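Checklist before submission:
- one chain only
- standard amino acids only
- sequence pasted in full

Submission:
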Amino acid sequence: MRGRTSGLVLVAGVVLLGGCSNSSPVAVVGNESDSSVIVRLNTDVGESYAVGTIAPGATARLNITGRDKLLWAVATYPDGRAVESQRLYTTTQGTVSVKVTKDAVELTYVL
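Returned file contents:
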């Protein structure tokens, strides 16, 4: 019985450690403009993440899949303009920051 208990503890430990080390990238989107904007993140591998409508001065956070890809943000303003950020290469971890202003969308990525 003792051997079986040790095995279960080992399996539980591996599962916990695996879960802790499996961190996918996080995207943090901040709206510094004076109006609400709709933001979407797109990738060159066909992924699309709807961040939704973000009020002025507000931020939103979401997890994105951990795979190598080009990523960019598109903000749609109340007047119908759609402004796209530059495209950045992202990997399996890190933080993507998106800053929306009244005239631009800036994207940064830090491992």
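Reviewer check: The chain has one helix and nine strands.
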